[in-house]
Design goal:
The complex is a heterodimer of chains A (512) and B (167). Chain A has 24 helices and 2 strands. With 512 residues, chain A is mostly helical. Chain A folds into 2 domains: 260 residues, no CATH class; 145 residues, no CATH class. Chain A has a two-stranded antiparallel ribbon with strand order 1-2. The longest helix of chain A has 29 residues. Chain A is globular and about 70 Å long. In chain A, 59% of the residues are buried. Chain B has 2 domains: 104 residues, OB fold (Dihydrolipoamide Acetyltransferase, E2P), CATH 2.40.50.140; 32 residues. In chain B, a hairpin with a 5-residue loop joins strand 5 and strand 6. Chain B is an alpha+beta fold. A 5-stranded mixed beta barrel of chain B has the order 1-2-3-6-5. Chain B has a two-stranded antiparallel sheet with strand order 4-7. The chains are: A mainly alpha (512), B alpha+beta (167). At the A-B interface, helix 3, helix 4, helix 17 and helix 18 of A face helix 2, strand 1, strand 2, strand 3 and strand 6 of B.
Chain lengths: 512, 167
């Protein structure tokens, strides 16, 4: 029991309700879009979805009303459970407009696409994307944009008045950087950074869209959608062909710049905006990212040139570098067809893609994967251990790494980084195992499992509506766990397990 | 024996040109093109599908994307040919169904390694049309009822918060 007789369940209900209500009101944007383009069915679909979401959100707030009355302080477990629970409830509520649109074959497919959007994965089960309404397209890309910055971060910025305990929700959603001492201030900075890039990125893509032959209105919508997808390292696109629809080097280059920027830590953006440009070079994450992406690009280039897959340097840039960086930043825009990875890239090419998809982008960014920071820390930890072995025991040297500020590299940091990497590898291994069990080839299963675990969104052809239900459910769980970085999900499982245990104990007592 | 060999050679000579044109005349699915990209690279193929999105005019040439239900691919056409297509598929329109004969490229050296088709001829098989949108009455009634319920709950919530603040 929390203080002043307010139970944990009430606290969780109240804050989950607030987050749901906040996202419900965001449905006004696709409603307005549908109105502007006179799309009456999508308009009604969103009205129904918004009403249901408001009812659920308000009901939860009413259930937890004592939390507000008693000004209860939030504990770590509440933060983690609220973050993970609100993602599950929102997945189902946000899937309603997908399901009502008739563009998905089942409600599970709708949930899959929503979770793919929230987690900025970008895998798609929605059918016939080329005939999707503007309202639903707006919603798909909004979900990935909001998911990238964090829905809890959004709710914190606009809805929760009291900042006390806010940090616990914030960490619960997989973000743990404090740009300013106040968490609400940090959340606001994250949104400010994203909104400034939104304007610059959308205008750039809008202008380029018109140059490459899109009509002004559609160039604007494509620009907005592609920015949201690139910045949040999502990978959704409004057309079936993804980035290949545009047939343009300039469009690909602009999206590439945006998704690389999106994969950087918000702390790094903030530091550079404050004039600390050296941070870009000194930061362990950028160092790690540039080393791994350079090595991966070179290996893929040499391999595919050896196989003579692409005819010249421009082709190599557009088909190899673009896809490797899209995978490494966990974006998932594909400039080749999914099946071409399997048919043309060979085992070595697939292996490179699997490795970069698992590594991913920066911590506290919109990217997925086990993050450049952890790779850098574990690598430095390894070097530290080797040096310790080689030096005399009297030599007590302090090892450091630079990440926004100087940090002492101790065993606990290395251990926690390694633990998260192990969790990701277990998730990846399980996904590969289930894929092969479902009858897919090993390379295909591993590629798809890496894409799902790292929240990437590139496919080798496995992800499609007819794939087995068990694999769809596993993918939803893997995307969710990968994005929330395990802790929140473990907390939710622990909380639910504790609740079930209490219920069982009570019923046993009654029986005896 | 000599006659048999002569007949065999003659048959082969006759069949080769016919088989090529027969392949080009047969419509190939886009997914099948991708699956057999190495074999079909730089050969003449025929594809049929719905023109989607919009024409991307690049001066002398334009890009038209078509979707045949299995997948979508970009067709590079002379702008004059592309202008024949008047309807493009989107939420409100069914695009023209077009039949394109052209050269399939697995990784086109002219277009940055794209998998595309350079169209030589285009034919409108079926004209597209605007899609009539019908709104089912039960959906309207459900939307109205749920909105009323949601508004009532929000008002109740606001009242409670207001009462709490007074107390």
């Amino acid at each position: 029991m929390a203080e002043k007789n307010v139970s944990s369940a009430e606290i969780i209900c109240y804050y989950t309700g607030c987050i749901i209500l906040g996202v419900a009101f965001l449905m006004m944007i696709p409603i307005i879009t549908a109105l502007i383009f006179a799309e009456w069915n999508p308009f009604l679909d969103f009205v129904v979805s918004m009403a249901v979401s408001v009812l659920v959100g308000a009901a939860l707030i009413l259930l937890g009303r004592h939390t507000r009355q008693n000004h209860v302080s939030v504990q770590w477990k509440h933060g983690f459970v609220v973050a993970s629970l609100s993602w599950i409830i929102l997945m189902m509520l946000c899937a309603i407009p997908y399901y009502l649109s008739g563009h998905v074959n089942s409600f599970l497919d709708a949930c899959f696409d929503v979770m793919s959007g929230f987690t900025t994965t970008g895998l798609v089960l929605t059918q016939d994307l080329d005939h999707l309404s503007s309202g639903l397209n707006m919603w798909r890309h909004m979900l990935t944009f909001i998911g990238g910055q964090g829905m809890v971060v959004l709710a914190l910025t606009f809805m929760v008045k009291e900042a006390s305990g806010a940090y616990k929700f914030y960490v619960g959603e997989g973000k743990d950087i404090e740009l300013v001492p106040n968490v609400k201030g940090t959340a606001r900075i994250i949104w400010k950074i994203s909104m400034i890039y939104l304007v610059i990125g959308t205008v750039s893509l809008w202008i380029d869209g018109m140059i490459i032959g899109l009509k002004p209105v559609s160039a604007f919508l494509h620009g907005l959608y592609m920015f949201e997808s690139s910045w949040s390292t999502g990978g959704f696109a409004p057309m079936t062909q993804n980035i290949m629809y545009y047939h343009s080097l300039s469009y690909e280059t602009i999206t590439m710049v945006i998704f690389i920027l999106g994969s950087f830590n918000f702390g790094l953006h903030y530091a550079i905006w404050q004039g600390k440009r050296k941070e870009f070079v000194k930061n362990i994450e950028t160092q790690s990212f540039f080393v791994t992406s350079f090595v991966a690009c070179m290996l893929a280039l040499f391999w595919l040139m050896k196989l003579n897959v692409y005819p010249d340097a421009v082709s190599a840039f557009r088909r190899i570098i673009y896809n490797v960086l899209s995978a490494h930043t966990t974006t998932g825009f594909g400039s080749i067809y999914a099946r071409q990875f399997a048919l043309e890239w060979g085992d070595f090419g697939i292996l490179i893609m699997i490795i970069v998809m698992l590594i991913g982008g920066s911590a506290c960014s919109t990217a997925g994967g086990f993050k450049a920071l952890r790779v850098g820390v574990v690598f430095k930890g390894l070097i530290m251990d080797v040096k310790k072995l080689l030096h005399s025991e009297r030599n007590m040297k302090v090892y450091k790494f630079h990440y926004i500020k100087e940090h002492i590299l101790d065993d606990s940091i290395v251990r926690s980084s390694a633990l998260i990497i192990i969790c990701y590898m277990v998730l990846f291994g399980t996904g590969t195992l289930i894929g092969t069990f479902c009858g897919y080839p090993l390379a295909d299963s591993a590629f798809e499992a890496a894409s799902v675990t790292g929240n990437v969104g590139l496919s080798i052809g496995v992800t499609a509506s007819p794939m087995p239900m068990a694999l769809k459910i596993y993918d939803i769980i893997a995307m969710y766990m990968g994005r929330l970085e395990f802790l929140s999900v473990f907390a939710l499982i622990g909380y639910a397990g504790g609740g079930i245990k209490k219920l069982c104990e009570k019923s046993f007592k009654r029986l005896s | 024996m000599r006659k048999i060999i002569q007949a065999f050679v003659l048959t082969i000579l006759i069949l080769i040109p016919f088989s090529t044109s027969a392949f080009a005349a047969e419509t190939v699915e886009i997914n099948s093109l991708i699956e057999n990209a190495k074999v079909l690279d730089k050969t003449e193929v025929t594809v049929q599908g719905e023109a989607i999105g919009e024409m991307l005019n690049r001066g002398e040439y334009s890009w038209v994307n078509i979707n045949d239900g299995t997948n979508a691919i970009g067709i590079k056409l002379k702008t004059a040919d592309a202008r024949q297509i008047t309807h493009y598929g989107d939420y409100k329109n069914k695009g023209d169904t077009i039949k394109v004969i052209g050269i399939f490229n697995r990784a086109c050296s002219e277009d940055g390694g794209e998998t595309d088709i350079h169209g030589e001829s285009v034919q409108i098989v079926k004209a597209g049309e605007p899609v009539k949108e019908s709104v089912p009455l039960p959906k309207v009634i459900t939307a109205v009822l749920l909105t009323v319920c949601a508004a009532a709950v929000v008002l109740l919530l606001k009242k409670r918060i207001h009462d709490e603040q007074i107390n």
